[in-house]
Every structure is written in structure tokens, then in C-alpha cells.
Specification:
alpha/beta; about 10% strand; about 325 residues; six-stranded mixed beta sheet; single chain; Lysozyme-like; 12 helices; two-stranded antiparallel ribbon
Length: about 325
Amino acid sequence: MADFDRRALLKAGFTATAVGTLGLTGVRTAAAAAAVPTPTIHGTAEWKARAATGAIVVENHKPTYIVVHHTVDPGNVTDYSLAHALQISRDIQNFHMDTRGWIDTGQQFTNSRGGYITEGRHRSLEILRGGTQHVQGANVGNHNSECIGIENEGLYSTVDVPVALWNSLVGLVAYIAHQYGITPEFIKGHRDFNSTECCGQVLYDRLPELRTAVGRVLGVSVARSDVAEWPLLKPGDTGRRVQLAQQFLRAAGADVPTDGVFGASTKDAVAALAARADLPRDTCTAAKAADETGFLGSDVWPLIVPADRSTTAWRADLSRA
């Protein structure tokens, strides 16, 4: 799939010159990287955001990670208009404030299926432009002081993102990375930090492609990572990874079978372990379509894998299982 679509980028607010720059292939020079285009970002005033109910925390340092999310709800709608993008920003803020109980929208930026980018939490755009601090969000449990999050409209567990959304995501991530000096290997999915489906399996599987595309914009080479991430296991899953997880849970005292089937008892054991460890719940900015209680992911695996080997070695083994 091509990294960029010229018309979609022009629609998203990039200049014709910038679009030509984005379309270049191969490693670029440092001088070219200095010309990373600034995307059009519609601020909180434009989408008539509610006032935050608490103080906006500004971290006095740059973020370490750029984190990709999906909204789940609304689903994969076909209204690609700016008006719709502004409305979903209002809907997300209402959900986060009225249901999650947060002071404001959780993520710093929102990317619509039509390729329109909006500011999320108040002051996120202002602080991003400064390039030395970042607004603390509420989108990655236990890691909000080091992450800046982008919510992508839609559900991407089984279907791919629209071209317009992909193009605007590449442009926005490249701009954030440029502003903060973040290299592409620090572009992550939400599930790399918490036990969640987010950002959807299909979009998550495209993160290596996203890192390459962003690296192309920045003019930097993207090294292939040989370090595996912790796999995400969910109720209903089967196979060797599930069996290994069950063996680790049994060693930790849980009464679960070792049949390689992620059934109710395995889910309950994982949920109980997460509760004892006080792992965060409802950390995702998505209005989740399904309960993720008992999911076994990046914050649960370190609690159960034996301490006789490094986490890197265990992740590698589990990726091959």
C-alpha cells in the first residue's frame, strides 16, 4: 500500500510543497528533515470543547513515546466530513468526562476517518508547538507522564484504516516526532503498555509500516527491531501461548487448567492477579465495545513469567510460541 495519497493530504491541510516532500522515498538528509510539514490541527475552541474540570498538568519534559489508539465507538462510519470530526471530538470528551470521570478528554489528539486532526486535551496543541514540554493525558495507565496519545476514529480489530486516516496519522506522528526529537522506534500501540485490544490488531500490525513511513518523513533510517513485544491473550484464545500463560499462573498459585484454552477460570485468575497488583482499569480512551477484564497483556506477563530469564528472552520465546 502506498504511504501517502496526495489528495487526502491536501484535504488534511498540507501544502502542495509539503505533499511533494512527503512523497519522497528513501533516506532523506538532515536539512530535508528540518522541513517536516505542520499539519492542520483544529483546536479545542473550534470544536467547542467543554472547559476542563481540573488543572491541566504540563509535564516539564518531552514525552518518550507516541502512542496510537482507536476509538472503537463510533465504529467505521462513512461520514468523512470536518463537521463529523468536530462532533466526535465532543462525543469523546463527553464520554471521558461523564463516564470515565476524567477532567477532560484523555488523549492529546484525535484523528478522524476523513483525515481531520483535532486537539484533544486542552493546551495539547499549544504545548506541542513549544517542543519542550507535553500535556499529561489519561490514555495509557501508569505511563501518562511519558506518553502522548493519538485517538484514531474507528474499530480496527479486523478491518484496515481508511487511506485518509492513515495519511493524516503519518503526518501527525511525524510532526510530533520532529517537535520532540522522538525516533520512530518509540512509536507504540496502547497494548504495548496495558492489557487492551487497543489499537486494534490490524492497525497494531501496521505499526512497523508507520515507523518506516514516519522515518521517511523525518529523513532517518528505521532499524528493524528484533525485540518482541508481549503478546495479548484474550478469552477464547487457544494455543501454546495460552498454555504457557496457564502454566505460569499455576506456578503463581492460580487454580487453572493447562489445556491451552483461555476459558472462564483463566480469565478470572488473570483478573484477580491484576486486581491484586493494582493494575489500572479503564485506562483506554476508547469507548470499548467489550469488557477487557481478564485480558493478559504487557502489564500482566511480567507478573507471571519466571524470574530465571530476562524479560527480553521471555518475550522472544512467547513470540515464537
